[in-house]
Structures are given as structure tokens and as C-alpha cells.
Amino acid sequence: MLKHIVMWKFKDEAEGKTRSENCLYIKGLLEALPAKIAFIRGLEVGINAFAGPMSYDMVLVTAFDSKADLDLYAGHPDHVKVSEYVAKVRESRAVVDYEA
Asked: Which of 2, 12, 28, 30 is 20 to 30 Å apart from 22, CA to CA?
């Protein structure tokens, strides 16, 4: 099993939405992906509850059977659509992939 963790810091305002509005909007988009991408084995999205100077705004934890499935996910049109939106509203991103 491969775990794919992504954390984002979002702009205060982007694409006509506040940071909080974008977090909720993106959470909904991400949580819809397992119904569209069958090889996602698990998906969890968390919005940070306690803001601080070192904290990120949102985290995504996904699970895949293999690196090949992660690569397919990365190029899947439904994921790309979400990713393109996130790129417009984020300040930074951190990623960790590990075998579980």
C-alpha cells in the first residue's frame, strides 16, 4: 500500500472565494474523486482546526495499491481538474509518499 499525503497553504482570497470557502470547496471536490477513480483505495481530507504560523490549511491523505496507480491518479482527468483549480488558489504545497 502506498500513502500519498499532500498539504496546502491557501491564499487569503482567490478565484472569488476566501481561504475558508476555498477549503470547503476543494474538500468537496477531493471527496468526490473516489466515486470517479476506482483505484483510489482510501481518501481523507482534513481542514486545519488550529491556525498558526507553521500550520497548513488542508491535508489530503490517499492510499493506492502501487506507484503505478498513484501515477494513473496524477494524470486522471478528474484529478487534473481539481489540481488545476488548487494551483490557482494555493500559496504552497508539501508532499510525502511512503509505503505503508
From this structure: 2
